[in-house]
What we know:
The chain contains 17 helices and no strands. The protein is mostly helical. It has one domain: Growth Hormone, Chain: A (Up-down Bundle), CATH 1.20.1250.20. Helix 3 (53-81) crosses helix 17, helix 4 runs antiparallel to helix 5 and helix 6 packs antiparallel against helix 13 (310-320).
Amino acid sequence: MGNNAGASRGLGRREIWIVAVSSLEQLIGGALSTVIGVILPMLQMLHRPGLASWEQGLLGAMGLIGIGCGSMVIGKLADKAGYLGLFRLCPLIIIGGAAICYFLTDVPFLALGMFVSGVGVGGGYSLDSAYISELMPPKWRMMMVGAAKATCSIGFIGAAVVSYFILTSDPHPQIWPRMVIVIAALGLVAFLCRLNWAESPKWLLAQGRVDDARKALERFYGKDADFDAFAAESKGDGKASAPGKFSVRQNIDRIIFSGIPWACEGLAVYGFSVFLPVLVMALGIEKAGVTGIPRVENSVEVTALVNFFILPGFIIGLWLVSKVSNVKMMATGFIFSAVGLGVLLASFLLKWPAWAMISGFVIFEVALNAGPHLITYIIPARIYPVSDRGVGSGIAALFGKVGAVAGVVLMPMLLHWGGMSLVLSVSGAVMLIGAGVSVVYGRKLMP
């Protein structure tokens, strides 16, 4: 694209700008999960008696429930009404949710604000891969869709670091509302970046609006964009059901293949990311003899260290994505994630030193993010035709968020019922289920 839309060429500043702006909800989603994970132990200190395990799980999951709702509803609306207006609306929804959390600090309003912000993030999830997959040069398309997903690692790491500095600058549990300011700020950046954006050219072509599609492509790539090459390539998306006529029966294999593994990795990614500070304390990795806010500070410090390895995982995955089968990457990632959890479980049961536990976390994070966390995001854009891509991506993201919600809700309950042994055993089993589904259905759809 760029000067030669649809043709083979290298990446330029226009392509990089498209990926950066399109992927901002991925970054915000990571930050949202990390922030609520830091807030939860602070709320425990403010409430006497503390929140019950199911209350912690439900509160931690509200953002994810919003993401699931937003991805499904906004994705379906986009297939009918177009992408642009909704793509601009999503950041405003995120800002509105953050404002509720900041100004109305009771727990029910925190839950509401997290849900509202999640709706905006989920809407972005259903649209960003569609924009990127149709606007990138074919040679770079798959890698750039994956690179967009990788930006969530910046959200996980950045939010943990910012939270740590907020805690150390004013160590009181009452300061938790300050942490949602970063969510509002990121939403504002996303909105401003999309003011000079354009409608999806392929969506416009699917509606028969050829002149509008030409203008939209020129908005992205300038007057010298090769629209004829772009339109010819768009015809290769294959036969599809008419917009608004998505058939579950006809797409059942696609739904299972794109949805179930996403649900499995969602449980791992968000179950662990939201409760990582709590799990670090349960494992006893933090410094001995510290209590109260200093203990939370220390757990957040370890969380930032563990979260750092999300990024190398994505980098490895992006390096491999054009060299290795997507199905093989996803299945292998699930298997090695289970291995990492096994190392963590052995370290915990046998009372190995903290470095051994952190090694288990590192194996888990690198494998999860090099494999399923990256590939599940790529799959829907590859297996669905353009007229079903919004709703197909939305359904897959919804499955992912159902898994994520289940992981977040169940994590404190599993911890209460059977401690870290039960948490790690159940999580490892889920990783192996993800590997099995990836292999069986991947052979059918992506041989």
